[in-house]
Amino acid sequence: MKNKFLIFCIPIALLLGCVNSPSKTYLFIGSFTEGRPASGIHVYEFDVSSGAFELLYIQPNTINPSFLKISNDGSYLYSVLESQLPTNGKVAAFAIDSLSGNLNLLNIHDSGGRNPAHLSINEVGDCLINSNYTDAGISVFKIGNDGMLREQHQLIRFKDSGVIKGRQDAAHIHSTNFSPDGNFLFAQDLGADKIRGFKVKSHSQKGLTLEDNGFTTTKPGSGPRHFTFHPNGEFGYSIGELNGTINAYKYAKGNLHFIQDYPSYRSKQDTYRASDIHISPDGLFLYASNRGPNEDSIVIFSIDVLSGQLSLVGHEPTYGEHPRNFCISPSGNFLLVANQFTNNVVIFQRNKKTGKLTKLPKELNVENPSSLQMYDYRID
User: Fold this and answer.
1) Alpha-carbon dihedral 155, 372, 326, 293, rounded to 10 degrees
2) Strands 184-189 and 323-328
3) Cβ contact 253:231 at 8 Å
4) DSSP 8-state secondary structure symbol assigned to residue 149
5) pTM > 0.85
6) Cβ within 8 Å of residue 371, ≥6 positions away
7) Which of 62, 238, 288, 311 has the smallest set of CB atoms within 10 Å of its CB?
8) Is 24 within 8 Å of 379 (Cβ atoms)?
9) Cβ-count burial of 342 within 10 angstroms (0-12 exposed, 13-18 middle, 19+ buried)?
């Protein structure tokens, strides 16, 4: 009887060991390099118990790697390059050494237009979508089994405009998001006040293709910039850069149905520069960043998971200027903000029950930080 008990316990112990196996968290920071080759990507190990950090690697000779995206399995890092320059930008693929944090450049392709601003990856992990801002367009790349990008096999361009002169004289695709079911793609057109929808067609040898599926119109002058879907797959939220407003939507079968809008800023502004938007891993809280000119803050909302409606929790200053991008750690315990104009990344402890943020004493000093990505790597 005793031996049988021991035999039964061994696989349970092994299972528990696998479930509770140690891990380490890496933080990847992309930045603007003022248009010249420089150390634009930094990799840190992040201590999830204390919020401390250690620099592991710096990628040299990169030009404006202003937006980063990690592959779904954490093996590869993708970056836009040469954004905000008068010539076509690039998209690069790097292999990630999960033991050291080092990056190895795999290949680079033309983005198909000026100012690539955002990257998204489908759930299967074999397709990357690039958003070109200045030459408004979406370029589609297949990701090989080796993590390398194949030549773009689809480039969709847009001609449109909005009501704000100087900012909406032409279409500007700022970001894209795959729907929770993976069957659709949504593109935020800041220049035309539209969320453009696309049907994801079946995969071919080259990769998936996109087919026009109409658009959702936002308020004139809102300038939709970034978007996030709720973890339950039923709701989506867009942030308008130009009117500082968050729109809540009900998602169903490729369509976005407007629920309500909410001010992102604490008070009314003459000019709005709302930026990024994310939802906590548990789906209970939504956060968005406001980039001045009179308020640099993170707004916090609680989410009604049944209706998708938001309730204001409060605003937290970012302790820096121009919070272009922020991220929530995989555990949900921390929120990190990249303040581009003050060259600092601020770390907040996040209260999972209230959603509120508490600034930690230490911060990272990085030149012009603009994009943050985090990933948990299991230690075997």
Assistant:
1) -80
2) unpaired
3) no
4) B
5) yes
6) 29, 30, 31, 65, 66, 67, 68, 324, 325, 338
7) 311
8) yes
9) middle
User: For 293-311, what is each residue's pLDDT tens digit?
Assistant: 999 999 999 999 999 999 9
Please state, in angstroms and rounded to a whole number, the distance separating the CA atoms of residues 334 and 266: 22
Token couple for 350: 């996040």
Q: What is the separation of C-alpha 134 from the centre of its chain, rounded to a whole number of angstroms?
A: 19
pLDDT at 13 exceeding the cut of 70:
no
Inter-CA distances, 90 with 66, 107, 329, Å: 11, 10, 28
For residue 70, the one-letter residue type is I
Q: Which amino acid would we find at residue 11?
A: P
Residue whose pair of structure tokens reads 């080796």 in the numeric block: 146
Instruction: Look up residue 312 and give its amino acid.
Output: L
Residue 9: what pLDDT?
37
Contacts of 302 (CB under 8 A, 6+ apart): 284, 285, 286, 310, 311, 313, 355
3-state secondary structure of 162: coil
Is 141 within 8 Å of 128 (Cβ atoms)?
A: yes
- Which residues, including other chains, have CB under 8 Å from residue 162's CB and lie 6 or more apart? 168, 191, 192, 193, 220, 221, 223
Do residues 179 and 186 make contact, with C-beta atoms less than 8 angstroms apart?
A: yes
- List, in order, residues 6 or more apart from 157 with CB less than 8 Å away: 113, 135, 136, 137
Task: Quote the CA–CA distance of 301 and 279 in Å, as a whole number.
Answer: 9
User: Whose structure tokens read 């795999």?
Assistant: 106
Element (H, E) at 14: helix 2-19
Query: Cα–Cα distance between 340 and 190 in angstroms, integer?
Result: 21
Span of 5-9, 123-127, 164-168, 247-251 with lowest mean pLDDT: 5-9
What was the pLDDT predicted at 4? Answer: 37
